[in-house]
Amino acid sequence: MATTDKSSLKLTKENLEAEDFLPLLGTDFVELYVGNAKQAAYYYMAAWGFQPLAYAGLETGLKDRVSYVLQQDKIRLVLTSPLKSGGDINRHIDAHGDGVKVIALWVDDARESYVETMKRGAESYFEPRAKRDADGEVVLSGIHTYGETVHVFVERKNYKGAFMPGYRPWKPFYKPTDVGLKYIDHMVGNVGWNEMNKWCQFYAKVMGFAQLVSFDDKDISTEYTALMSKVMSNGNGRIKFPINEPADGRKKSQIEEYIEFYNGAGVQHMALATDNIIETVTSLKNRGVEFLTVPSSYYEDVLDRVGTIDEDLAPLSELGILIDRDDEGYLLQIFTKPILDRPTMFIEIIQRKGAKSFGKGNFKALFEAIEREQESRGTL
Ligand SMILES: [Fe+2]
Fold first, then answer.
1. The VOC domain covers which part of the protein (predicted)?
2. How far apart are CA 263 and CA 244, in angstroms?
């Protein structure tokens, strides 16, 4: 395991002691269990610029559920709702509200990924199974991770269809333009008190990940609230999973608020990458996405902290985009308010200009912004 050295954020093979036995090629899809997949699909298309890709439901032979698949560049979302009462998906939604059920990982060999992770102590979600149609074969297998969240390994090297067998292409008339989102940069899990190390060890031992960086409560605290975080990464750096746990503060940590409303551990946010954060965030705002704001004083001395950047400060400050620098470059980032009814999941937009870190310099301003939201919800 890498140590908790905060000065070294370099993501290279050499200092990552990740044992890349799977290996993971990328995030294949993220599946959310939602109360109303049809309307959620419209939200992710209209507000977020996702494109319709595939559909499965009664018309494709499913009896108990419906799924809409959306795509924007390399990001694929699957939105699934139950069609009948009393099943597992219903229970999941009752317990957690809408939320991420599956973080699917693209692998070369889903059978081997299952065998290797099970050998290292994973808990099975489902055994390897092949799904076939006229476009070929997809092999899937699954293991559990924190809370009720699962990882599904997806092997699609012998498949040329739109998504996977069981789905048909979905081509509605309504197709809004995209907003320039490219890929999933990282996905963050919130876990309970004193559980961060357990889940970091899970990713190290079972998945062969290494620890990239660690933040303690001194890094991530305001006058009132605190949390701790460690970032786990696979060997090629395409999969990065920060894991947060609450820490003691004078008031209630945002992680506790999450755990309370989600009823346990789960995905806190997805960070989606763009090559032009000013354009992307301008589009998102125009389409109704709401972002956290920082006081304008943030921009008065930000360039003293981060040095010269390519962008004009005015549009960044107007949009509320945050800036941070590490020894490899800088990054631009912004966070939405919760995108669901419960104050659980949100989305980060990130543009990396060399930096491989996570915006530590913004934590204080950001968490004070979150506290203002918690205050308004009466959950601080
Ligand atoms: Fe993040």
1. 26-156, 183-337
2. 15
What is the pLDDT of the chain when averaged over all its residues?
92
Dihedral sign of CA atoms 363, 318, 309, 272 in order: positive
The answer for residues whose C-beta is within 8 angstroms of residue 222's C-beta and 6 or more apart is 249, 364, 367, 368, 371
CATH 3.10.180.10 is right for the domain spanning 24-169: yes
3-state SS class at 108 = coil
Residue 333 alpha carbon to ligand 1 centre in Å: 9
C-alpha 25/C-alpha 106 separation (Å) is: 5
How many degrees, rounded to 5, is the angle at CA 323 between CA 312 and CA 51?
85
Please count the CA atoms within 13 angstroms of the CA of 179 that sit on its side-chain side: 24
Same fold, 24-169 and 181-377: yes
The DSSP H or E segment spanning 89 is: helix 88-96
* pLDDT level of residue 16 (50, 70, 90 thresholds): low
Distance 350 CA to ligand 1 centre (A): 8
Would you say residue 9 has pLDDT above 80? no
Q: How confident is the model at residue 4 (pLDDT cuts 50, 70, 90)?
A: very low
Structure tokens at 169: 């292409």
Query: What is the CA(358)–ligand 1 centre distance, in A?
Result: 6
How many Å lie between the centroid of ligand 1 and the Cα of residue 155? 27
Domain layout of the chain by residue ranges: 24-169, 181-377
Between 13 and 233, the more confident residue is 233
At 328, give phi and psi (nearest 5°).
-110, -10
Query: How do strand 150-159 and strand 99-107 relate by DSSP bridges?
Result: parallel
Domain range 181-377, its CATH number among 2.60.40.10, 3.40.309.10, 3.40.30.120, 3.10.180.10? 3.10.180.10
Q: Sort residue 186 into left (φ over 0), alpha (ψ -120 to 50) or beta.
A: beta
pLDDT in tens, 59-79: 999 999 999 999 999 999 999
Q: Is 61 left (phi over 0), alpha (psi -120 to 50) or beta?
A: left
pLDDT in tens, 67-110: 999 999 999 999 999 999 999 999 999 999 999 999 999 999 99
Mean pLDDT, range 252-260, rounded to an integer: 92
Distance from the alpha carbon of residue 267 to the mean position of ligand 1, in angstroms: 11
